[in-house]
Amino acid sequence: MTEPSGNMRTADGAPTLEVRGISRAFGSVQALRDVSLVVRPGEVVGLVGDNGAGKSTLVKIISGAQAPSSGEILVGGQRVEFHTPKASRAMGIEVVYQDLALATELTVAENIFLGREIKYGGLLRRLGVLNRRKMRVEAEKALASLGITIQATTTRCGLLSGGQRQAVAVARAIMWGSKVLLLDEPTAALAVAETEKIGELVKAAARHGVAILLISHDMAQVRKICDRVAVLLRGELVADLPTESTSIEDIVLWITGGAMVVSE
Question: Residue 1: pLDDT band by 50, 70, 90 thresholds?
Answer without folding.
Answer: very low
